[in-house]
Specification:
Two copies of one chain form a homodimer.
Chain A lengths: L11 E3 L3 E4 L17 E7 L15 E7 L9 E2 L10 E2 L12 E12 L2 E7 L5 E8 L2
Chain lengths: ~140, ~140
């Protein structure tokens, strides 16, 4: 049986690059997918990453990665979209926040930039969510 | 000036869920975007996450998140696609592997499943890359 090599399974340490300011405080009220969201908020990027924002433009769409700090990490199966009439599925076949490494991705639109504070629309993260990365849309 | 709250900036520990087996050994030869890739390889998921694969189907497209373990984390600006005729940009406005938290995402197609080993096509990761997450396509 094939097994992952030991050295590739070592723990990895992430450092948040900022936080997400959002009007969503209750994860149960978050849109189920970013594509369904018309929620506006701010990405408060830490000052030390200012240079990494060079060239960011108002009106552009960006991909954000964030850490779902409220999500359970030790549950491996869920009912999709919390619909208990649907059979259990492995979390790796769903978009559930519940998963061993609860990293979410969302595409949002930049509506304003002031220093390292980025106004965006299309959020599905709760207020205070650690921000991990920002990428251009592929 | 708005600053991220202290408690949201604490370090986060990830645990790889497996590794990626790929014919790509040199990151300089990796396809620049997953969408350009016709590379086949395997996701070797650790046995402890077997239940999280329930319902995964051959032929389906999945999103994988992985840790670019060879990427620099302390460079904040790059020439896009390593084209030095193009001006420097902040890494957060690019898809460069270089970034503070080098997490990449790629959409691949499942071509076979045997236990916790998943055959896929469309890879852009190098051999031995730590796998962080598998999600359904949104």
């Amino acid at each position: 049986m094939q097994k992952p090599r030991e050295e590739s399974m070592q723990e990895i340490v992430l450092k948040p690059i900022g936080i997400i300011q959002s009007p969503i405080s209750d994860p149960d009220k978050a849109p189920r997918h970013g594509s369904e969201s018309t929620v506006s908020g701010k990405l408060i990027v830490d000052e030390q990453y200012r240079d990494a924002l060079l060239g960011l433009e108002k009106g552009s769409r960006i991909v954000i990665l964030y850490w779902m700090h409220l999500a359970e990490r030790d549950v491996l199966q869920v009912h999709p979209r919390r619909d208990y009439t649907r059979p259990l599925r492995g979390v790796f076949t769903t978009r559930s926040p519940v998963r061993p490494n609860p990293i979410s991705l969302d595409t949002v639109k930049v509506t304003g930039i002031e220093g390292t504070v980025i106004d965006v629309i299309g959020l599905d993260a709760v207020d205070g969510t650690p921000l991990l990365d920002i990428k251009s849309v592929a």
